[in-house]
Amino acid sequence: MADQKWSIYMIRDKLGNIYTGITTDVSRRFYQHQQGTGAKALKGKGPLFLEFQCPVGNRQQASQLEYQLKQLKKQQKEKLITDQPSDVALYLNHNPHN
């Protein structure tokens, strides 16, 4: 279990809000969100759209990147979604202000 690969993901709700989370299985977690059994922040806010996902390594790395992404302004999150980087950590280091 310690060597599970973690991913970060971003979901857009029907109001255009962007939710950021981490998981070891993006498809499973997105399904949970769609069924209303995921985060409280997304309950009743469907339809939901998976806008971004990226493998990030271990849980600690995923949690750190999740925190960084949650600190971004919406405009910066939109740019990240548009750019669809394959390495989100590298992207954030090279685009600190997006």
Structural class: alpha+beta
Query: How are the strands of the largest sheet arranged?
Result: 2-1-3
Give the class-level CATH name. Alpha Beta
How much beta, percentage-wise? 15-25%
CATH architecture heading: 3-Layer(aba) Sandwich
The CATH superfamily label reads: GIY-YIG endonuclease
CATH topology: GIY-YIG endonuclease
Q: Tell me the count of domains.
A: 1
Which key features would you list for this structure?
98 residues; alpha+beta; GIY-YIG endonuclease; three-stranded antiparallel β-sheet; 3 strands; 22% strand
Question: How would you describe this protein?
Answer:
Helix content is 41%, strand content 22%. It is an alpha+beta fold. It has a single domain, classed as GIY-YIG endonuclease, CATH 3.40.1440.10. A 3-stranded antiparallel sheet has the order 2-1-3, with helices on both faces. A hairpin with a 5-residue loop joins strand 1 and strand 2 (18-23). The protein starts with 5 loop residues before the first strand and ends with a helix. This is Putative URI domain-containing endonuclease. GO terms for molecular function: endonuclease activity. It comes from Proteus myxofaciens ATCC 19692. Belongs to the UPF0213 family.
